[in-house]
Write a structure and sequence with these properties.
It contains 16 helices and 11 strands. By secondary structure, the chain is an alpha/beta fold. α2 packs across α8, α5 packs antiparallel against α15 and α10 runs parallel beside α12. The protein is elongated and about 65 Å long. 44% of the residues are buried. The mean pLDDT is 94.
C-alpha cells in the first residue's frame, strides 16, 4: 500500500509533462515541413472540416494539430469556427516573412515520428508504439495482447498511478465513501482501484481487464496487500458482459485511447449495467471549453493521436457524450498532474 494513501512532498507534474508531450514537436514539424500548413492557412482561412478536405486529413489527428496550434498561440478561431494564423505564425511560420523559422524545422523532417504523423494525418490510423517492430501488424491496442509488451507498458502506467491515484481519491472522497463497489474498467495494473480502496476502507473494487493484463493486475494487487479488497474480472470491455452489482464505474486514462464511437459504446455499456443512483467517474487529461489549452494537455494529445485511436477531449465534449449515453453531468474538478475528474450519474 506504500504511497497509495499519502502524497509525496514534491509535485512530479513537470516530470510527467516531459514524457507526455514528447511527440508535440514532431507533429508541429510535420505540419510545417510536409504540409506547409501555416502558408496554406495564410491564404485560406477555414474551418477544420475545410482544412481536412483540402489536405485529405482524417479529422481526429487534424483536430489534435489544430488544438496544438491554438494552445501555442499560432492559430486563432472565430465564432464561426474559421481558423486563421495569429501574428506569431504569420511572422515566424510563413515563407513570405523575413522572420520565417520554417527552415529551422527542416532538418528534423526525417525523424521517424514526423513520418509517422504524415501517415496518421492522412489515414487516421495509429502508428506503432515507440520501439515496436515496424513490420508488425498490430498497433498499441493489438500489442497489449502480447505479454512482454503488456508487462512493460502496464508498469509504465502503474508508476504514475501511485501519485495520480491518490490525487483522484482525495478529489472524490465523498462519493467513494457512499459507494459500495467500484468497477475499474480497463484498469491496467489496478493501481487506481487500489488507490481508491486504500483511501476508502469500506469500498470493494474490481478491475476489469483482458488477458494477459488480468494476470499482471492480480500480481500487482497482491504485492500491494489489497487482495481482500480489490479483485480482477477477466473480460474485453467492449464485448464481454460487465458485472451488474457495482454502483461506481471508473474510467481512468481510458477514454483518451479511443475515438468518439468507441467512447459512446463504453458509456452505453456502463449505463446499462449501473443501478439507479450509480455514478460514472472519468479521470483524464481534459482540454478547456475552447480547446485553446492547457498547453501540456494539447501536447499530450499528440502522442495519443500518434499511437492510439484517441486524443484528449474537452470537458464539454465528454459531457456531451455522457448526456448522449443517458448520464447526467454532475461535476468536474482538477486533480493532479494536469489531470481532472468528471462525475456523472444515472439520469
Amino acid at each position: 500500500m506504500t504511497g497509495l494513501d499519502r502524497l509525496p512532498e514534491s509535485d512530479p507534474t513537470t516530470i510527467l509533462r516531459y514524457r507526455d508531450g514528447i511527440y508535440a514537436a514532431d507533429l508541429l514539424t510535420a505540419a510545417i515541413t510536409e504540409f506547409q500548413f501555416f502558408d496554406y492557412l495564410a491564404d485560406h482561412p477555414g474551418t477544420l472540416s475545410e482544412i481536412c478536405e483540402h489536405y485529405g486529413w482524417d479529422r481526429r489527428p487534424a483536430d489534435v494539430l489544430v488544438t496544438l496550434a491554438k494552445a501555442n498561440g499560432f492559430v486563432q478561431e472565430d465564432e464561426n469556427g474559421v481558423l486563421s494564423n495569429t501574428i506569431n505564425a504569420s511572422e515566424h511560420l510563413c515563407s513570405g516573412s523575413p522572420w520565417n523559422l520554417s527552415e529551422y524545422y527542416a532538418s528534423l523532417r526525417n525523424r521517424p515520428v514526423v513520418s509517422d504523423f504524415v501517415r496518421v494525418l492522412k489515414t487516421g490510423k495509429p502508428a506503432h508504439w515507440s520501439g515496436l517492430d515496424e513490420g508488425a501488424d498490430d498497433d498499441w491496442h493489438g500489442a497489449m495482447l502480447s505479454e512482454a509488451f503488456a508487462k512493460t507498458f502496464t508498469a509504465a502506467m502503474d508508476c504514475r498511478g501511485v501519485y495520480l491515484g491518490k490525487k483522484l481519491a482525495d478529489a472524490i472522497q465523498d462519493l467513494l465513501n457512499r459507494g459500495k463497489c467500484l468497477l475499474d474498467v480497463g484498469g491496467g495494473s489496478g493501481v487506481y482501484a487500489c488507490a481508491l480502496a486504500a483511501n476508502t476502507p469500506g469500498l470493494k473494487a474490481r478491475v476489469m481487464e483482458q488477458v494477459p493484463v488480468d494476470g499482471i493486475a492480480r500480481e500487482a494487487i497482491e504485492k500491494r496487500g489489497l487482495s481482500d479488497q480489490v479483485s480482477v474480472v477477466v473480460g474485453d470491455m467492449f464485448n464481454d458482459p460487465w458485472p451488474t452489482d457495482c454502483d461506481l464505474h471508473l474510467f481512468s486514462n481510458v477514454m483518451h485511447d479511443w475515438n468518439t464511437d468507441e467512447i459512446l459504446k463504453l458509456l452505453e455499456r456502463s449505463r446499462a449495467s449501473l443501478p439507479e443512483g450509480g455514478h460514472v467517474i472519468i479521470h483524464e487529461t481534459f482540454l478547456n471549453l475552447d480547446k485553446t489549452g492547457p498547453l501540456p494537455v494539447a501536447e499530450y494529445s499528440c502522442i495519443l493521436a500518434h499511437s492510439t485511436q484517441g486524443r484528449c477531449y474537452s470537458v464539454a465534449e465528454m459531457s456531451d457524450l455522457l448526456v448522449e449515453s443517458g448520464f447526467q453531468f454532475e461535476s468536474f474538478q482538477e486533480t493532479g498532474g494536469d489531470r481532472g475528474v468528471i462525475v456523472a450519474s444515472v439520469s
